[in-house]
């Protein structure tokens, strides 16, 4: 106790230095918070006020790769680009495009339409585009669709295919009698989407035993199919692991999953004409085979998506 | 803010009360995972804590181990065990057990070690064996603290088991993760409310256990 | 190309950059929590009756999972670092208030009487006597808050790559590269241990009158338990 009293008398300068330190800390904190806030806050930051184009991506590998393709193609034409990767599901990214915190996003036309208008049933790519434009937010616009398609699919694992004699020629409707015994898996949003459980019920009349929330065609989905935790799952048709694992993709004759062309969704007026031209040029060259090959380089050969994107753009003569 | 509105809407929706995604099923899953993790952690932490506390040895090693385990990020460990082991219950249990062992272990060790040595010496003088001393003399006195270690582990497990929904585990975390991806605030707020209520219920259970199990003499002393 | 310290391009940071980001995202909230906890704790010390309800409230706050708070905050602060930092500051506050209250209350009455007799007013008495004596308790609380904050930042990866080192976890899954998850876990754990050690060092600097090398282990848990205090308080 005496030592405490001594220490207080000895250090008569302490209050001043302490309060100075506290003040400095507060200042640093405020500065840190505000810089962290304004730099990253989608509501205020990155609004392309300085001409920077924000390229965003959803939470799966192919979306990141496509965003890299778009971003690097824009950079090659002298557009200033920043990236926001792995934002989340469409339910989130669509809002961020609307409020201007993302300028460009790789989209899939059929899935976007199903999000905007679950009842639409277009028969051609052109009809799809027209239907989307009718529903799209007035601040957004679609650029040219690419021939490259990546569909959601109803896919069964090898055991299930064998048990119920399902082959590449079988269709989703062939699950009709057995769905009640099967667990289906997909991303959490698959559960509430038209191109998901809702559509499988209304279009194909399928009611599954239960739904297991996994990820957007990623490793959780693959692992769950492999381990037979789920017998059926939503796998993307460009997924390089499809052939590796002997999963069987069921045909979709009623076109529930529609057209799924890769297509840039853009905030109106935020992208200069040269940028629009650059993205249209990418769409003209990108086909399904190329998309599948690029995905394999990233997921199976563990190459960095940015390197893969740059190499493809170069080989396609776009940079 | 209309959080209460969301809570009301969530619990008022009849669809949330039945089926595999209904509240009763998700709650049971959550309680199941939590009990399993707590059980395994207690099976590891209690014996080691009692033994080291009784002998008074290994305290430094325990403190080091506990610090290391505390430093491991639970969410990171969860994803790591998933990418290494694939989908399943085991990859989820490992991080939860790692999370829960340190509080149980360290508190038990401290509880037994800090028991007043004089009754222990008296018991030894009376010819009691070491095992009997541990269970008849030290443990009753140490029990309140031992229970507090278990309680803090249990609350942490209940709260943390929610992130396991990211690697496809069921339980109440489903509502929060699904709500994030579906942009469904009702689900997120409803799920969070359920987790918080479950944590409070856990506290209440431990309070009741303490009332029943701790000897009145010990309780008066603290 | 895929060395241990090579970070996938989509994270837009080097390994060191992620470390810096992680420390900022974890420790600024602890600092904010401390600055908020000091006055709150002082009020609780002054008005004893306030303490049990405050502790009850903090217990409830603490029981809400971090991810739920992140998601609810997205509507207000967007998918940003700030959205991650606000709940972390709240958790730090919850840990620090009981630590400070207990520390300040533990100052013996005779010491306070001596300080008053020396002519110290309430403010100087608080700054020069109570707070320095409470330093070990505050630092113990800070250690727990900092370590759990460093661990929880990773969860921010779920709301759009806002989890610093945690973002490596999402990439480990996307690209089937477990090494990235190992990197995330190991780096985060090492940061936690280093920050913990640094805080022990700070305590030694601030409390030169305390014996060195004594027992330093704080109350064990990653997510500490304010409930212990609530129940203790209720029993009193």
TrEMBL record, chain B:
Its main location: membrane. The lineage of its organism: Bacteria, Bacillati, Actinomycetota, Actinomycetes, Kitasatosporales. GO terms for biological process: glycine betaine transport; transmembrane transport. Keywords: Membrane, Transmembrane, Transmembrane helix, Transport. This is ABC transporter permease. It comes from Streptomyces echinoruber. It is a multi-pass membrane protein. The chain crosses the membrane at residues 31-50, 62-86, 157-177, 189-209. InterPro entries: ABC_transp_perm/SBD, MetI-like, MetI-like_sf. It is found in: Cell membrane; Membrane.
From TrEMBL, chain C:
It is a multi-pass membrane protein. PROSITE patterns: ABC_TM1 (PS50928). It comes from the Bacteria. Residues 19-203 form the ABC transmembrane type-1 domain. PANTHER family: GLYCINE BETAINE/L-PROLINE TRANSPORT SYSTEM PERMEASE PROTEIN PROW, OSMOPROTECTANT IMPORT PERMEASE PROTEIN OSMW. Belongs to the binding-protein-dependent transport system permease family. This is ABC transporter permease. It comes from Streptomyces echinoruber.
């Amino acid at each position: 106790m005496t030592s405490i009293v001594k220490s207080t008398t000895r250090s008569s300068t302490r209050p001043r230095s302490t309060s100075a330190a506290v003040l400095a800390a507060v200042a640093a904190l405020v500065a840190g918070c505000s810089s962290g806030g304004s730099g990253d806050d989608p509501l205020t930051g990155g609004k392309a006020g300085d001409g920077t184009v924000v390229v965003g991506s959803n939470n799966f590998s192919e979306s990141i790769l496509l965003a890299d393709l778009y971003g690097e193609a824009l950079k090659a034409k002298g557009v200033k680009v920043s990236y926001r990767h792995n934002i989340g599901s469409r339910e989130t990214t669509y809002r961020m495009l609307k409020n201007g915190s993302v300028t460009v996003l790789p989209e899939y036309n059929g899935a976007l339409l199903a999000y905007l208008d679950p009842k639409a049933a277009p028969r051609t790519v052109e009809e799809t585009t027209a239907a989307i434009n009718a529903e799209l937010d007035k601040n957004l616009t679609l650029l040219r669709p690419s021939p490259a398609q990546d569909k959601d699919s109803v896919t069964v694992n090898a055991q299930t295919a064998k048990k119920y004699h399902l082959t590449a020629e079988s269709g989703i409707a062939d699950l009709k009698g057995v769905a009640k015994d099967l667990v289906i898996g997909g991303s959490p949003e698959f559960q509430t989407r038209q191109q998901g459980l809702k559509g499988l019920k209304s279009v194909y009349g399928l009611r599954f035993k239960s739904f297991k929330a996994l990820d957007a065609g990623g490793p959780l989905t693959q692992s769950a199919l492999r381990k037979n935790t789920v017998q059926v799952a939503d796998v993307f048709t460009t997924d390089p692991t499809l052939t590796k694992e002997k999963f069987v993709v069921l045909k979709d004759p009623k076109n529930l999953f529609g057209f799924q062309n890769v297509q840039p969704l853009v905030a109106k007026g935020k992208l200069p004409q040269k940028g629009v031209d650059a993205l249209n040029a990418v769409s003209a060259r990108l086909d399904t085979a190329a998309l599948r090959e690029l995905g394999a380089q990233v997921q199976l050969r563990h190459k960095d998506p940015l390197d893969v994107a740059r190499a493809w753009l170069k080989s396609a003569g776009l940079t | 803010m209309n959080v209460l509105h969301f809570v009301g809407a969530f619990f008022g929706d009849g669809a949330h009360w039945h089926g595999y995604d209904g509240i009763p099923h998700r709650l049971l899953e959550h309680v199941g995972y939590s009990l399993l993790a707590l059980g395994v952690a207690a099976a590891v932490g209690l014996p080691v804590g009692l033994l080291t506390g009784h002998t008074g040895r290994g305290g430094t090693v325990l403190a080091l181990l506990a610090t290391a385990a505390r430093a491991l990020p639970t969410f990171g460990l969860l994803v790591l065990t998933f990418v290494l082991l694939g989908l399943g219950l085991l990859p989820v249990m490992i991080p939860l057990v790692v999370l829960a062992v340190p509080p149980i272990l360290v508190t038990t060790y401290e509880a037994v070690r800090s028991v007043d040595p004089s009754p222990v010496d008296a018991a030894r003088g009376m010819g009691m064996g070491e095992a009997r001393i541990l269970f008849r003399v030290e443990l009753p006195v140490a029990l309140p603290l031992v229970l507090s270690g278990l309680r803090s582990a249990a609350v942490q497990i209940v709260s943390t088991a929610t992130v396991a929904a990211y690697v496809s585990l069921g339980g109440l975390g489903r509502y929060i993760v699904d709500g994030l991806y579906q942009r469904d605030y009702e689900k997120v707020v409803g799920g969070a409310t359920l987790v918080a209520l479950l944590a409070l219920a856990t506290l209440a259970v431990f309070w009741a256990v303490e009332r029943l199990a701790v000897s009145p003499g010990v309780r008066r002393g603290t | 190309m895929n060395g241990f310290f090579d970070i996938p391009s989509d994270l837009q940071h080097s390994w060191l950059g992620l470390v810096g980001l992680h420390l900022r995202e974890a420790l600024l909230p602890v600092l904010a929590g401390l600055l908020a906890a000091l006055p709150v704790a002082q009020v609780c010390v002054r008005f004893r009756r306030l303490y049990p309800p405050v502790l009850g409230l903090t217990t409830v706050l603490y029981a809400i999972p971090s991810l739920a708070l992140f998601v609810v905050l997205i509507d207000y602060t967007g998918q940003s670092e700030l959205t991650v930092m606000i709940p972390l500051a709240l958790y730090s506050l919850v840990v620090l208030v009981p630590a400070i209250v207990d520390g300040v209350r533990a100052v013996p009455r005779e010491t306070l009487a001596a300080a008053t007799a020396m002519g110290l007013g309430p403010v100087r008495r608080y700054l020069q006597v109570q707070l320095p004596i409470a330093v070990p308790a505050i630092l113990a609380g800070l250690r727990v808050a900092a370590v759990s904050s460093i661990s929880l930042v990773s969860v921010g990866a779920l709301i759009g790559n806002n989890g610093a080192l945690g973002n490596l976890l999402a990439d480990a899954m996307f690209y089937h590269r477990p090494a990235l998850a190992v990197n995330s876990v190991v780096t985060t754990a090492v940061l936690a241990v280093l920050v913990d050690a640094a805080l022990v060092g700070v305590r030694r600097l601030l409390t030169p009158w305390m014996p060195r090398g004594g027992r330093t282990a704080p109350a064990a848990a990653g997510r500490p338990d304010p409930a212990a205090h609530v129940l203790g308080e209720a029993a009193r």
